[in-house]
Amino acid sequence: MATTWPAATSSPSATSGRTGSYVVRSGGSPVPASSTETTPRPATAPANDTRPAAAASTSVPGAAARSTPRWPGP
Question: What is the mean pLDDT of residues 45-66?
């Protein structure tokens, strides 16, 4: 079914700087300004320690490589 009129949207809500490892803020026109704030919280340790057997495949053959950052500790 085709959309005949754009659906109403709202702006995203503000993000607390305390919930992540860093916050990036950018300014507006005419000259954009930006800043980055980092928190001193260390990254968390893994919940489970998984050790594959020697020569075990640890990815999907043919899939693109993927990296997931660690979240900061509590």
Answer: 74
